[in-house]
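pls design
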């Protein structure tokens, strides 16, 4: 089974959990795109929802498909958010996110959600975070070189993310992203806290203790994972 088929199956399984009247968080990335497409089809069939997107890209897809968008001024809580991930730790369901550059809005929406449902193909499941994905660290543009030096002091070589034209990538919030290959993380939660306390860092792509469940597609169907009790 190809990866797109798996992403689509996982996304559709999660989209089936959405019910009439919900405020839904819309993730970002190729797997979240399948989930938004599934919600568009359900809305055309009569499902009534409002949604808060985690990126301009996802907002555009939802709007074009007829999903009503809302914001935190009108709805302070989100019932359920469906989003992808770059790595999912088996057991804890802690995540690395942000390869698509939407980590900050994704984390804000996830933190305001009653349930964060992660959708992915099986390549995203790992025993320990950090082995395959660089950890994206979003930093303010002003003085980013000094912020990068502070991050480097944690024992990593931060790489400024570039866009397709070779210019510094800008997030929807206008910030820069440093991709940081820390390697396997013995203490992902500790690193997340350290990065959050680093001057100039806006946030990192480490999502600790936020996932309510993950729908992961394998060659033999979509498996559901819940975080192991701490
Ligand atoms: C977007 O900023 C990311 O957090 C994505 O959710 C993550 O990169 C997963 O994307 P894919 O579903 O495209 O792999």
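designed seq:
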């Amino acid at each position: 089974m190809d990866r797109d088929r798996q992403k689509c199956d996982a996304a559709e399984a999660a989209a089936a959990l959405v019910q009439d009247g919900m405020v839904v968080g819309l993730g970002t990335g190729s797997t979240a795109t399948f989930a938004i497409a599934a919600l568009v089809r359900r809305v055309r069939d009569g499902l009534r929802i409002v949604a808060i997107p985690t990126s301009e890209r996802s907002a555009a897809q939802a709007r074009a498909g007829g999903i009503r968008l809302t914001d935190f001024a009108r709805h302070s809580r989100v019932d359920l958010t469906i989003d992808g991930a770059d790595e999912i730790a088996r057991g804890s369901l802690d995540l690395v996110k942000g390869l698509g550059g939407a980590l900050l809005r994704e984390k804000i929406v996830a933190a305001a959600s009653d349930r964060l449902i992660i959708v992915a193909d099986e390549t995203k499941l790992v025993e320990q975070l950090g082995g395959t994905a660089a950890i994206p660290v979003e930093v303010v543009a002003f003085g980013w070189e000094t912020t990068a030096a502070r991050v480097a002091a944690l024992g990593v070589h931060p790489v400024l993310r570039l866009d397709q034209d070779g210019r510094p990538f800008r997030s929807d919030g206008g910030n820069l992203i440093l991709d940081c290959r820390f390697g396997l993380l013995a203490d992902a939660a500790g690193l997340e806290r350290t990065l959050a306390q680093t001057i100039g860092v806006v946030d990192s792509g480490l999502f600790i203790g936020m996932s309510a469940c993950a729908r992961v597609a394998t060659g033999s169907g979509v498996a559901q994972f819940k975080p192991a009790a701490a």
